[in-house]
């Protein structure tokens, strides 16, 4: 996790992230120009969505003068497999492959490994936050797993990422801290229609993702003890005490 690495090395405020897409090329180039002079980090996400700009990225890489670059400068690139990604850039860098987890257990375990103890224990409404965080993790795992069933799962296979879960977690923490009560309606809109739903283009899939989240983000999840998300006893929001207990629970109990 680049964000965690940057934080651990004191670069949290010097990591500049940009999701590539139409019209983002000039912004990316400006970020790189500034960062290589002052030693900041740049992370360009979704390079596969900016195929037309990849030739510019190759040119930028070829024109770099090591003598003029700060030693602390780092350029991070994320991409799905793409024929448009320039081979010289691949050859010049360190490659890391990130396989998506398979199965509910693997997805849940991965989601909670990314949660810090400070975040897990720091909310002003601890019960509501933890319960809805469990619900969000299950929702994230379910919509990812549905992709394996082709058009039965989703009409279009969407590329949801860990960043969608992270953003939703941060919003959950912020709104519970700042708002009176538990703003389920607001949180449901942000998660289903903005964070995850922003990638959804099929109208039937829009209805489906909203319906799936509604089965997790509900008053019973917060109010009831060990509320079951399905008839299977293993899928529930536990009355957890600590983060390590939750990780062990999902690792040992939840079926993949």
Automatic annotation (TrEMBL):
Domain Dynein heavy chain AAA lid, first and last residues per copy: 129-248
Coiled coil regions in record: none
Entry-linked InterPro entries: AAA_lid_11, AAA_lid_11_sf, DHC, Dynein_heavy_D6_P-loop, P-loop_NTPase
Gene3D superfamilies given in the database record: P-loop containing nucleotide triphosphate hydrolases, Region D6 of dynein motor
Domain Dynein heavy chain region D6 P-loop span(s) in chain numbering: 2-97
GO molecular function terms noted in the UniProt entry: dynein intermediate chain binding; dynein light intermediate chain binding; minus-end-directed microtubule motor activity
GO terms (BP aspect): microtubule-based movement
Residue spans crossing the bilayer: none
Protein name: Dynein heavy chain, putative
């Amino acid at each position: 996790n680049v964000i965690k690495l940057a934080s651990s090395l004191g670069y949290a405020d010097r990591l500049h992230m940009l999701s590539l897409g139409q019209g983002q090329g000039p912004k990316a180039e400006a970020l790189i120009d500034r960062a290589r002079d002052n030693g900041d980090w740049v992370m360009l996400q979704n390079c596969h969505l900016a195929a037309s700009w990849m030739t510019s990225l190759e040119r930028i890489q070829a024109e770099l003068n090591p003598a003029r670059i700060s030693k602390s400068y780092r350029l991070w690139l994320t991409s799905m497999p793409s024929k448009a990604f320039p081979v010289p850039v691949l050859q010049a860098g360190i490659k890391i492959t990130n396989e998506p987890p398979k199965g509910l257990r693997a997805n849940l375990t991965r989601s909670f490994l990314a949660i810090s103890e400070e975040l897990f224990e720091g909310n002003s409404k601890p019960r509501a936050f933890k319960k809805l965080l469990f619900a969000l993790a299950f929702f994230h795992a379910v919509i990812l797993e549905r992709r394996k069933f082709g058009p039965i799962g989703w009409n279009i296979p969407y590329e949801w990422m860990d960043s969608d879960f992270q953003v939703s977690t941060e919003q959950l923490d912020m709104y519970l801290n700042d708002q009176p009560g538990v703003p389920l309606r607001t949180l449901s809109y942000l998660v289903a229609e903005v964070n995850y739903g922003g990638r959804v283009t099929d109208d039937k899939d829009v209805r489906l993702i909203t319906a799936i989240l509604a089965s997790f983000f509900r008053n019973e999840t917060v109010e009831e003890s060990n509320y079951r998300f399905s008839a299977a006893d293993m899928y529930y929001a536990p009355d957890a005490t600590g983060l390590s207990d939750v990780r062990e629970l999902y690792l040992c109990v939840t079926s993949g």
